[in-house]
Design goal:
This protein is mainly alpha-helical. It contains 4 helices and 3 strands. The protein has a 3-stranded antiparallel sheet with strand order 1-2-3. It is elongated. The protein starts with a helix and ends with a helix. The model has no long low-confidence stretch (mean pLDDT about 90).
Amino acid sequence: DTLSQHEIEILCGVYYVDTGIRDQTTTLAWWPVPDLWDGSGLNMGYWTLSCEQVFQSRLKKICEGNATLLTTKKWRSDLKYYKNLSKKINNCVENMCRQLLK
């Protein structure tokens, strides 16, 4: 079983908001949708300490009323840091594994 796109949007708290420009809308969300999360570098195939820290930090802001809905562009930007860091870590781990297998 898999979730439908609509179910994913409900879980992530996605809203489509009218921009006031013709029929244009912007997408706002409390949490990043899976495609953004997967592309961020936080997806290591399992839930890491970094994932938990990002989640807990965001959850705390939401619970305290200090969080705002974020656009797709803002989510991508906020998670961008992890993509570069994770890529470096993955490359290092891969190189070490190759050396061990030789």
